[in-house]
């Protein structure tokens, strides 16, 4: 039953991505799907993998490590999308391929120092707080250039783009505003040497708006796996 539900949901999400790309005049291959598997079981991840899904997003380090240990036979691309904590940076640097939520120069330096020497640079997106709310994670837009400069000097990291997590709303026009703001910020900061080609934005309820504004990663959990089975 788990596999059957995930198959149906994945088909629906992929169809939504294709339809949104058609509206935006973009090739569907420009948008990568990250299946947000936090609070989901290793069996659910395996079921999605068997249906062709390769990128999975986790927010809690120990939970992710437990599932990674059960799925060592699969060539999963692991994305860390949760809050980066100083006491977890070694595990993140060691076990993940991507970090979408980097917002602190000290965390950047720790991730760089703790990335294994035989591993490729850790791919990162800088999380931007576009709302200005102190309760939200992310770096202020005015400070992104300074954080980029710090990361550019760290050989163990490679900044690939920007990420944001806006406040939820059902109005597509309103949904598009922060996504457009992130794209515009990227366009101002991108250079030939560091094009910031990745925009990680859009979730189950607003993936269409994100794709219309240039998302290259959408992070989808509930629409694939259904409600989280445990807290």
TrEMBL record:
<dbReference type="InterPro" id="IPR029066">
    <property type="entry name" value="PLP-binding_barrel"/>
</dbReference>
<feature type="domain" description="Alanine racemase N-terminal">
    <location>
        <begin position="9"/>
        <end position="229"/>
    </location>
</feature>
<protein>
    <recommendedName>
        <fullName>Pyridoxal phosphate homeostasis protein</fullName>
    </recommendedName>
</protein>
<dbReference type="InterPro" id="IPR011078">
    <property type="entry name" value="PyrdxlP_homeostasis"/>
</dbReference>
<keyword id="KW-0663">Pyridoxal phosphate</keyword>
<dbReference type="Pfam" id="PF01168">
    <property type="entry name" value="Ala_racemase_N"/>
</dbReference>
<comment type="similarity">
    <text>Belongs to the pyridoxal phosphate-binding protein YggS/PROSC family.</text>
</comment>
<feature type="modified residue" description="N6-(pyridoxal phosphate)lysine">
    <location>
        <position position="38"/>
    </location>
</feature>
<comment type="function">
    <text>Pyridoxal 5'-phosphate (PLP)-binding protein, which is involved in PLP homeostasis.</text>
</comment>
<dbReference type="InterPro" id="IPR001608">
    <property type="entry name" value="Ala_racemase_N"/>
</dbReference>
<dbReference type="GO" id="GO:0030170">
    <property type="term" value="F:pyridoxal phosphate binding"/>
</dbReference>
């Amino acid at each position: 039953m788990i596999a059957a539900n995930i198959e149906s949901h994945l088909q629906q999400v992929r169809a939504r991505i294709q339809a949104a790309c058609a509206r935006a005049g973009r090739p569907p291959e420009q948008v990568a799907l990250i299946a947000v598997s936090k609070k989901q079981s290793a069996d659910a991840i395996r079921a999605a993998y068997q249906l062709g899904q390769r990128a999975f997003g986790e927010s809690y380090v120990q939970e992710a490590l437990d599932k990674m240990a059960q799925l060592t036979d699969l060539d999963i691309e692991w994305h860390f999308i949760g809050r980066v904590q100083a006491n977890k940076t070694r595990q993140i640097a060691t076990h993940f391929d991507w970090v979408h939520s980097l917002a602190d120069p000290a965390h950047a330096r720790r991730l760089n120092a703790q990335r294994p020497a035989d591993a490729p640079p850790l791919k990162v997106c800088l999380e931007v707080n576009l709302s200005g709310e102190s309760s939200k994670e992310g770096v202020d837009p005015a400070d992104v250039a300074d954080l980029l400069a710090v990361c550019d000097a760290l050989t163990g990291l490679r900044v690939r783009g920007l990420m944001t997590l806006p406040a939820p709303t059902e109005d597509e026009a309103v949904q598009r505003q922060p996504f457009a703001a992130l794209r515009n910020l990227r366009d101002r900061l991108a250079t030939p040497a560091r094009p910031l080609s990745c925009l990680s934005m859009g979730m189950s309820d607003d993936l269409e708006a994100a794709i219309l504004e240039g998302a290259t990663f959408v992070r989808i959990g509930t629409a694939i796996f259904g409600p989280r089975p445990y807290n």
